[in-house]
Design a protein that fits this description.
Pfam families: PFK
Structural class: alpha/beta
Distance between the termini: 34 Å
Protein name: 6-phosphofructokinase
GO cellular component, one term: membrane
Radius of gyration: 28 Å
CATH class of the largest domain: Alpha Beta
Shape: globular
Largest sheet: 8 strands, mixed
Keywords: Allosteric enzyme, ATP-binding, Cytoplasm, Glycolysis, Kinase, Magnesium, Metal-binding, Nucleotide-binding, Transferase
Cofactor: Mg(2+)
């Protein structure tokens, strides 16, 4: 932990404060991670923390429903779905008498800080409770249930909310707790259905949750490459039946053996009439005669283990919620902890509740699902090549598919380059059509092929291939090698005019080590692989007891996977390159685990980044722990290796890859039009690029773009900042020269 952050937490004090946490309304995966974070952060700062079991019903009933929490009581909660403290819809709390009982139960325990995890109804009820608090205390005093001292001591009730809802239907936050896990359940079903649908040439209509919000339907449609989707926010135009059947028929005529249609449970037409899955099925059978089946996912979407994203999101929100309660004053309004970009922020609760949740920013993406979009753009004379560079990352294929189809929709001729820049200089370039990328979204690895070869030694041959195929723009998808490749091409522009074309890079690496972006394509999938493995390892230790596991993760010189994976898996210690450690730290960690074995939590989990220290290797740490823990605990080690690069991409990576690739193609189209003069494309001018939501373009000089994911809306990072400050600092910090030598082997 950085020293300034450590000092900040050390200066926090919750002494004398009592915090209660409850879950209310529908359950959502990740709620337990939020509860765990509130409890442990509260205890860390010296506050008393209480569970309120069964939501508001438990608050009204009191008694054993309100219990003090301990550090150990939230152990092993991270990987459990639902909510272990229970959730219930309480009619009694909606009455004044019910809230009076709840207030009495809280005052008896001196609880004046309440953390509520639920939907907008639960948070609205909490805010009403806060507004009535003074009046409720006065009534309790008049009835003789509490004394004047209790009124003075508990005069103010502080409320902080966290949104737990799989529908992602709360305004003010980009993602709610549980949404990503629900998408995992949907995509797991779609991937399984796809195989049987292909076997029998069937059409499947899938109904997903979302009575008033179509987020799950829309994003799952993007993530699985569905043919059609219905959402409440965007009723289809009149005559949609003809358009949909035509689209399905054209898809089959191009050789597709299946069709997927996603229907949100609240989908309606322009007249407000429901569009049900059965209606869609009957329509397809009647019009086209396709063998069509309906699958209603139902509460499967609420169940199962929370994803890595939801665990981290909920944990960060839980910590922020406790900080908000500690900093609250008598006049502080109730707030809700939200995710904006990649940051946990506090927003006024009732302002968010009162806003109408509209997914207009996302509905634009629906155009990617329809082939008819290609008919809306005139044919251009531009050729755009796309290639993958560096190590494979799950989600690369989704990005390629999106780039190809959006490029064709923009009127370009798209070319695929096999095996990165090695294939480029060898001439492994061919035109790629709309149908060639069908089914790519759910495929792991890199179907185009990817190599770590940099272009520096083959510039003349690459320039020749650009001339041969008349390439007007490049889209490079990859990690740090891709960034280095762009810099080499830029530096070669003085000698090769062929490189003076728009070039855009999408960060795609499981290591998430590309400077200038918060997230990279592939990192989420890798995190889920790490977390799933850690869950299984921890489960195995629950039987043997007194066992510590040393797990090595990938990431090169970047500790992102180890750090975030450790947070999501509940690790005791994480060793990374960015934070130096010595033998004294190792000894302190062994002593911590020794003390831990004396509690009811008799297991340990240690994550080590593969390059965290050249001397303190995984074997060294394993042997040290084994020797120092002799007689107290035994050790096992596990090197996860390339399993972190494999597997089908997660819903997040599919959606992220699809959207950023589309943004990249839009940037390329604009830059091509601006750079086309005198019958040729010459990207020499330095341009400022506009932001779209949290996805921003960072431009290198002379028409080279870098598309990245940024958390804040601060000013655009200049090309000099990326090249001179971030990149050079990254080189020195991570010893890039040694890194390049190792990766070139």
């Amino acid at each position: 932990m950085p020293s300034d952050t450590k000092k900040f937490f050390e200066n926090l004090s919750g002494a004398g404060k009592c915090i209660a946490v409850l879950t209310s309304g529908g359950d959502a995966q990740g709620m337990n991670a939020a509860v765990r974070a509130v409890v442990r952060m509260g205890i860390y700062v010296g506050a008393k923390v209480y569970f309120i079991h069964e939501g508001y019903q438990g608050m009204v009933d009191g008694g054993d429903n309100i219990k003090e929490a301990t550090w150990e009581s939230v152990s092993s909660m991270l990987q459990v779905g639902g909510t272990v403290i229970g959730s219930a819809r309480c009619k009694e709390f909606r009455t004044h008498e019910g809230r009076l009982k709840a207030a009495h139960n809280l005052v008896q325990r001196s609880i004046t800080n309440l953390c509520v995890i639920g939907g907008d109804g639960s948070l609205t009820g909490a805010n009403l409770f806060r507004e009535e608090w003074s009046g409720l205390l006065t009534e309790l005093l008049q009835q003789g249930l509490i004394d004047e001292e209790a009124v003075q001591k508990n005069s103010t009730l502080h409320i902080v909310g966290m949104v737990g809802s799989i529908d992602n239907d709360f305004c003010g936050t980009d993602m709610t707790i549980g949404t990503d896990s629900a998408l995992h359940r949907i995509i797991e079903v779609v991937d399984a259905i796809t195989t049987t649908a292909q076997s029998h040439q069937r059409t499947f209509v899938l109904e997903v949750m979302g009575r008033h919000c179509g987020y799950l339907a829309m994003v799952s449609a993007l993530a699985c490459g569905a043919d059609w989707v219905f959402i409440p926010e965007m009723p289809p135009e009149d005559g949609w039946e003809d358009s949909m059947c035509q689209k399905l028929s054209e898809s089959r005529s191009r050789g597709s053996r299946l069709n997927i249609i996603i229907v949100a449970e609240g989908a309606i037409d322009r007249q407000g009439q429901p569009i049900t899955s059965d209606f869609v099925k009957d329509l397809v059978v009647r019009r086209l005669g396709f063998d069509t089946r309906v699958t209603i996912l139902g509460h499967v979407q609420r169940g199962g283990t929370p994803s890595a994203f939801d665990r981290i999101l909920a944990s960060r929100m839980g910590v922020e919620a406790v900080l908000a309660l500690l900093e609250a004053s008598a006049n502080t309004p109730a707030c809700v902890v939200s995710l904006v970009g990649n940051q946990a922020v506090r927003l006024p609760l009732m302002e968010c509740v009162q806003m109408v949740s509209v997914c207009a920013a996302e509905t634009e993406d629906i155009v990617f699902l329809s082939i008819t979009a290609a008919l809306r753009h005139p044919q251009s004379s531009f050729n755009v090549a796309v290639l993958n560079v560096g190590a494979p990352a799950a989600g690369m294929n989704a990005a390629v598919r999106s780039a190809v189809r959006v490029g064709i929709a923009e009127g370009h001729k798209m070319f695929a380059v096999s095996d990165g820049f090695e294939g480029f200089y060898k001439g492994q370039i061919k035109e790629i059509k709309w149908g060639d990328v069908g089914g790519w979204t759910g495929q792991g690895g890199s179907l185009l092929g990817t190599k770590r070869t940099l272009p520096g030694k083959h510039l003349e041959k690459i320039a020749e291939q650009i001339r041969i195929h008349n390439i007007n723009a490049l889209l490079v998808i990859g990690g740090f090698e891709a960034l280095e490749s762009l810099l080499q091409l830029y530096e070669a522009r003085a000698d090769y005019e062929d490189f003076c074309i728009p070039i855009c890079m999408l960060p795609a690496t499981i290591s998430n080590n590309v400077p200038g972006t918060d997230l990279s394509i592939g990192a989420d999938t890798s995190l889920n692989a790490i977390v799933e493995t850690c869950d299984r390892i921890k489960q195995s230790a629950s039987g043997t007891k007194r066992r510590v596991f040393i797990i090595e993760t990938m990431g090169g010189y970047c500790g992102y996977l180890a750090t975030v994976g450790g947070l999501a898996a509940g690790a005791d210690t994480v060793y990374i390159y960015e934070e130096a450690f010595d033998i004294r730290d190792l000894q302190a960690n062994v002593e911590h685990l020794t003390q831990k074995m004396k509690t009811s939590i008799q297991r340990g989990l240690v994550l080590r980044n593969e390059n965290c220290n050249e001397n303190f290797t995984t074997d060294f740490i394993y042997q040290l722990y084994s020797e120092e823990g002799r007689g107290v605990f035994d050790c096992r080690k596990n090197i996860l290796g390339h399993m972190q690069q494999g597997g089908a991409p997660s819903p997040f990576d599919r959606n992220f890859g699809t959207k950023v690739a589309a943004k990249a193609m839009q940037w390329i189209t604009r830059t091509l039009k601006d750079s086309y003069k005198g019958g040729k494309v010459t990207a020499h001018l330095k341009r400022s690029l506009s932001r779209a939501a949290v996805v921003r373009h960072l431009e290198f000089p002379r028409g080279a773009g870098f598309l990245c994911f940024k958390a804040s809306n601060t000013s655009n990072i200049t090309s000099e900042a990326v090249r001179d400050e971030q990149l050079i600092d990254f080189k020195s910090k991570l010893q890039l020269e040694e890194y390049n030598q190792q990766t070139a082997m």
